[in-house]
Amino acid sequence: MVPAKGKPFMLGWSMTFHSALMYFVAAALAADGLNIIIPSFEAAYGFTRGQMNVAITVGTLLSVVAAFLFAWLVMKKGPKKVTVASLLLMGAAAIAFGRVTTLFGFFLCIAAFAFLAQGVAWTTTNTLVSNWFIKKRGLAFGISTMGLPLSSAAFVPIANMLVQRHGIAHAFFVIGIGVLALALVTWWWVIDTPEEAGLTPDNADLSPSEVARLRHEMTHHRSQWTITRLLKNKEVWLISLGFGLLFVVTVGIVTQLVPRLIDKGFTINQAVGFLSAASLIGIPGSYFWGWLDQRFGVRAAAITYCLWYMAATAFLLVAESGAMTVATVFFIGVALGGIGNLYPSMAAYTFGRHEFPSVNRVINVVVGMIRPLGFALMGVTYDLTHSYDTGYIVLIAVAAAAVALFWALRNNYNPDLDIL
User: Fold this and answer.
1) 40-82, pLDDT tens digit by residue?
2) What confidence tens digit (pLDDT) does each residue in 112-145 have?
3) What distance in Å separates the CA atoms of residue 269 and residue 267, rounded to the nearest whole number?
4) Treating both helix axes as pointing N-terminal to C-terminal, what angle do 34-45 and 156-189 enclose, rounded to 10 degrees?
5) Which residues contact 48 (CB under 8 A, 6 or more apart)?
6) How far apart are CA 64 and CA 149, in angstroms?
7) Threshold 0.90, pTM exceeds
8) Closest to 34 in 3D by CA, of 220, 182, 163, 195
9) Which of 23, 44, 233, 402 lies 20 to 30 Å (CA to CA) from residue 284?
10) Among residues 265, 403, 381, 394, which one has the least CA distance to residue 317?
11) Whose CA is closest to 210, among 222, 192, 194?
12) What is the DSSP track for 325-379?
């Protein structure tokens, strides 16, 4: 019999909720948490922002290796086992981070966070959602990536409170224990593909024989996309470079927003409050970009996203008054919800769910090589000019370059539509 609606239907969507939780963890330790980490370590140990951002850049570049490694592991073992192992290591790294007192130790732990974030979220969750959804993929990614802005909204103020009340060591011990607990939850919760549960992508109403066919195809599929072939493909480079540049903008804005607002005269608690407000706006913003993807197509949504980010960065550049700061927070908040879901959605749409893990090996590596430049850009320009303004001007130009790349992306065929 065809699986009944109801519980099977919710099982698929529960994978998006788990993915949101994984995005929350990865963003908390590898990105958003830097809003607390940077001022806390600056005050405690005298590290400069430039030193820390360069260390973050170098450490994050090492995650390029992780992008390829975890993509290969997901192809061999599936996203569930890779996620569990990554969470165990991430929890241990968080506990160790609380004991760091040197710049080299800071670098090692930051590198571990960036490396393991690929296994906790970027590689694994994207594959999981792509496995479970085809026609509803845009909305599914929109829901799963709500964990990214939620991390800024919830983790940053919680981490700030823990650090202020209990110190860096105790704060990251608590955080690490929480991450370790999530490894157990993941082992119980996640199912790699709908076929493993006797279901279909999008919970489509198919006959038992069709369900069996899909499961056989998913189990026995062998990708024809070799590394060499992927490196010669135009769409791979347009997607990789376009979203790599957008990640530079995201990293440049999000990780330095609290220090920027402090420079403008706000207290750290006020600055964290603004970041939390932007992040809360990003939660419905994530759904909005998913809906835009579903309604108008991922290419149109990506170009619109670039233009929106240019406006958001321009507001951040000129904001001086309270009213302008509120407007800036709104524009940044809406933008925060888009990067995580549009990036995997475009890759999955262009190449299909069967090929996504294979194609993602290259796309994720290229994006991972470009993303850390946001740290270096903002850190170095700040140390040279004692202001973030120059960095923001460069970020606007970077978003404009991404528009040109997505405009050149002409492949509008989704191979998965032949399945259902």
Assistant:
1) 888 888 888 778 878 887 777 777 788 889 989 998 899 999 9
2) 998 999 999 988 998 999 888 887 888 888 889 8
3) 5
4) 130
5) 42, 383
6) 23
7) no
8) 163
9) 402
10) 394
11) 194
12) HHHHHHHHHHHHTTHHHHHHHHHHHHH-TTTHHHHHHHHHHHHHHHTTHHHHHHH
